[in-house]
Amino acid sequence: MMNIKKYLDSTYLKLPSQSNLTEEQNFEEARKITEEAINNHFYLVMIRPNYVKRIKEIITKFGSEVKVGTVIGFHEGTYSIKDKLTEAKKAIEDGVDELDYVVNYEAFKKGEIEIVKKEFIEGTTLGLNKGKVVKWIIEIAALSDEQIQTICTYFSSWAQENFKPIDFQNIFVKSSTGFYKTEDGKPNGATFHAIEIMLKYSKPLQVKAAGGVRTYDEAVKMIEMGVKRIGTSSAKALSENKSTNSTY
Ligand SMILES: O=C[C@H](O)COP(=O)(O)O
Fold first, then answer.
1. Which numbered atom of ligand 1 lies nearest the CA of 234?
2. What positions carry a catalytic annotation?
């Protein structure tokens, strides 16, 4: 059995309104997955920006090596570049280790490539200069295969033009937010088909599969394909080789 724990970004991104909880009860859910990540040695916990400071303190208090990641511009990605950078800077001040930006994929689909290029370069530069890992969520369920190929190709070439080869291990293209609303029945998260395209065209960057990964076997297959990180709200079940139906 493969030990998948070091690939897992254990995720809790619901807002209180999405889980019918008070703010403190919602934070409690984030705290629970953090303790679970610490006890099970997962790689990272992925939580909303306003929880970063307190979650980092908990991890530090435990003396654990679990990293803290947060989402920027979540979940539609349409925030301005300025707002994304402001949110990212605050998360860095609060002690975050990894920044998962949502790409302005609506701008990309409208052909406004300069917006996407600017946010990719500025957002990545901010993170790398502070020693952070940076990921760009492209929201594959909103894109055609051709669009996935194109955006991954852009990221690959912008990265090679603007950053050093040593940085490529710290820049990821990530599949999904897990929150995108699709037509009935269509998956809103990572599919093997889309991951294959991402792996092929994002090189030399890394790929993170997130959204709808619900079984150990799916996770292992993606890792064997070349994915370097799995984002999932079912980390514990996956690590124990149990499948789950839990969804956002
Ligand atoms: O970053 C997004 C989540 O990791 C994916 O969510 P999910 O596992 O609940 O579908």
1. 8
2. 100, 174, 208
Q: Locate tokens 């998948």: which residue?
A: 4
Is pTM beyond 0.90 here? Answer: yes
| Cα dist from 240 to 57, 139, 234, 244, whole Å | 27, 28, 10, 11
Kindly state if the Cβ of 70 falls inside 6 Å of ligand 1.
Answer: no
Burial group, residue 136, by CB count within 10 angstroms (0-12, 13-18, 19+): buried
Query: What are the b/e assignments for 177-206, b being 16+ CB within 10 Å?
Result: bbbbeeeeeeebbbbeebbbbbbebbbebb
Domain at 5-240: CATH code: 3.20.20.70
Q: How far does the centroid of ligand 1 lie from the alpha carbon of residue 161, in Å? A: 31
Q: Ligand 1: distance of its center to the CA of 189 in Å? A: 8
Q: Which residue has the tokens 């292992």?
A: 220
Q: Does residue 77 line the site of ligand 1, with CB under 6 A? A: no
Give the helix/strand (H/E) hosting 18.
helix 16-19
Average pLDDT per consecutive 10 residues, the chain (248 residues; last block may be shorter): 95 93 95 97 98 98 97 96 98 98 98 98 98 98 97 98 98 96 85 98 98 94 98 94 65
Return the ligand 1 atom nearest residue 188 CA. Answer: 10
Residue ranges of domains in the chain: 5-240
Here the tokens at position 230 are 């799995």
